[in-house]
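Retro notes (design track)

What went well: tokenization of the new backbones is finally stable.
What didn't: we kept losing track of which sequence belonged to which structure.
Fix going forward: every design gets posted as structure first, then sequence, in one message. First example under the new rule, 169 residues:
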């Protein structure tokens, strides 16, 4: 994966967790952990498949408190335990076929995410870089327009991750 293929609309998020890097990596890659914290607050995650290796896939559905269900998938590009994960994220149907986001017909079909983990003094620094991948100008514009909401969504997800990591000590 050539990281230079990321387009200039990337979002960069950094967070420090009071947990060792191996544990943080494990909760990103082990379905027994991942389903306990990933996604928006109040949503549940059903994991249909999680094969974390280059070319492997994650397929799952999130259910809102009101019962709305959204399917999504990751296709893993690079997996270097315990320091790096690169995956392309898309909305999908139950079969894992890529579909348009239900909230915006111009939302990028693919979002690339590059997760890097570094550890110092038992704390893990997580950096997530991501943005439209193989996107049209309309898709890049849609991503740019929703950047604050994307960042807010990840902030909430990272809060859940922080709480979950605290419960694993």
């Amino acid at each position: 994966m050539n990281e230079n293929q990321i387009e200039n609309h990337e979002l960069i998020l950094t967070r420090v967790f009071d947990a060792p890097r191996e544990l943080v990596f494990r909760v990103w890659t082990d379905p027994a952990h991942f389903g306990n914290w990933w996604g928006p607050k109040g949503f549940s995650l059903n994991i249909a498949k999680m094969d974390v290796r280059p070319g492997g896939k994650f397929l799952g559905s999130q259910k809102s408190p009101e019962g709305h269900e959204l399917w999504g998938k990751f296709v893993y590009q690079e997996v270097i335990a315990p320091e790096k994960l690169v995956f392309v994220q898309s909305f999908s149907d139950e079969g894992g076929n890529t579909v348009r986001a239900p909230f915006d017909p111009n939302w990028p079909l693919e979002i690339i995410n590059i997760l890097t983990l570094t550890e110092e003094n038992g704390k893990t620094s997580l950096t997530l870089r991501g943005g439209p991948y193989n996107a049209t100008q309309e898709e890049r514009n849609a991503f740019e327009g929703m950047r604050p909401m994307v960042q807010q969504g990840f902030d909430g997800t990272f809060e859940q991750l922080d709480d979950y990591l605290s419960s694993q000590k």
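Added context from the reviewer: The chain has one domain: 3-167.
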